[in-house]
Amino acid sequence: MGNPRESALKIRDMARRHNRLFGDSIPLIASENIMSPLAMEMLLTDFGSRYAEGLPHQRYYQGNQIVDEMEEYATELLRRLFGSRFADPRPISGTVANMGVIYGLTKVGDPITVPDLSGGGHISAAKFGAVGFRGLDASPYPFDPDTMSIDPDGARKLILEKKPKVALFGQSVFLFPAPLKELSDTFQEVGCRVWYDAAHVLGLIAGGKFQDPLREGAEIVSGSTHKTFPGPQHGVVLGQSDETVWKHVQRGLFPGVLSNHHLNTMAALAVTTAEEMEFGRKYASDIVDNAQALAEELHSLGFRVLGEKRGFTESHTIAADVSEMGGGKEVAEKLERCGIILNKNLLPGDQGKKSQDPSGIRIGVQEITRLGMGKSEMKEIASLIHRAITKNVTDREISESAAGLKRQFPEVRYCFGKLHAYEYPEFAKGI
């Protein structure tokens, strides 16, 4: 492996190559995004070397005066952006946010209703994820593949039957809003808490382009902050509940699942929240427009894009059944070789299929939208995907075309300041 110095430089070289990889590729992973220059700067500050446990002014460490100031500012920015009574910027990821909510709202053995994995549910809501680790009795909602959404009538029957302590909504393949309004009377009848996992659509909610769960009956909203919300890999919890419930959630976070809460990423989250207040509505609108345009173009080229009856998508995400084109694994790997990066994904009807060999692919447009691409580029990307899979062209030919398109959009948009999106900063000169 070489001496320690050579090993360190080798890791740096890996980072440089990774930057180049994405600089020359079309990034379509629905759970990723790229940060603004000001948010990125926060990751390099001394915040990243420090420790803070607990809430502001109630720390277990000294030297947190400015940390307290920053955390309180981040909390207030989040409250203002989402119109929430409470906000907690401490979770270090979306899954950790979910774990904190689970620990705060439930006890071992409690019943909970959750989105089904085959309907796009997240693994943290599965029996082998955080819900199972807590020992909850989870029952999945029926999913309607025609509407690509939770079936409201089936969900109503399930909630009345199971009488859950908590009803959870939110998915990883999240094309259309969850039926919160339709189920509001049912929630009240059984007296359950309503929790909404907004990991994928947090930025769309901030921009007023998906649904407004806190005004539609959800008491708690959790989320990650690096998908449609274009910030660092971090998490957040928002609350519209009473103070007693909120204190339980905060206790679930700390000392439940957190110690130190990664202060540099929390600072980056605060910066991103301020940028969302300025640019979020336009960004969210452009994301949805691009997703719908790309879905329509793929459909016109013969792809089986799901959700056709409802216009394919109302979010950043597109789901396509490519089982007749080799399946999700083969298509995703082929496109990766062509410089188009997306992921294979289970689809409704894939029960019994292995997650590593599903029928579908999942596509997200939030990152390419943040680089400034619009509807004409969506048409070009659809053509590249179509040619890569169905035409007799080489991987190199497609990858060169993909890189050529990508290089036309080198800067991060919808933010304060400008930055080449995939530049590698030289911090270690002279080594």
How would you summarize the topology of this molecule?
Layout lengths: L3 H20 L2 E2 L9 H6 L22 H18 L3 E3 L5 H12 L5 E4 L15 H4 L3 E4 L2 E2 L4 E2 L1 H11 L3 E4 L14 H7 L2 E5 L4 H5 L13 E7 L3 E10 L3 H15 L5 H38 L3 E2 L11 E5 L6 H10 L2 E2 L1 E3 L14 E5 L1 H5 L4 H16 L4 H12 L25
Parallel strand pairs: 1-13, 3-4, 3-7, 7-8, 8-9
Antiparallel strand pairs: 2-10, 5-6, 9-10, 11-12, 12-15, 14-15
Helix pairs in contact: 3-10, 4-9, 10-13, 13-14
Fraction in helix: 40-55%
Strand order of the largest sheet: 2-10-9-8-7-3-4
CATH superfamily of the domain at 40-275: Type I PLP-dependent aspartate aminotransferase-like (Major domain)
Strand tally is 15
* Count of helix runs: 14
Strand percent estimate: 5-15%
The name of the CATH architecture of the domain at 40-275 is 3-Layer(aba) Sandwich
Spans where pLDDT lies below 50 across 5 or more residues: none
- CATH level 1 name of the domain at 40-275: Alpha Beta
CATH topology of the domain at 40-275: Aspartate Aminotransferase, domain 2
What form results from the Cα inertia axes?
A: globular
Structure, explained:
With 431 residues, the chain is of the alpha/beta class. The protein is globular and about 60 Å long. Strand 5 and strand 6 form a beta hairpin. The strands form 4 sheets. Strands 2-10-9-8-7-3-4 form a 7-stranded mixed β-sheet, sandwiched between helices. A 4-stranded antiparallel β-sheet has the order 11-12-15-14, with helices on one face. Strands 1-13 form a two-stranded parallel sheet. It is built from 14 helices and 15 strands. It has a domain at 40-275: 3-Layer(aba) Sandwich (Aspartate Aminotransferase, domain 2). The model has no long low-confidence stretch (mean pLDDT 95).
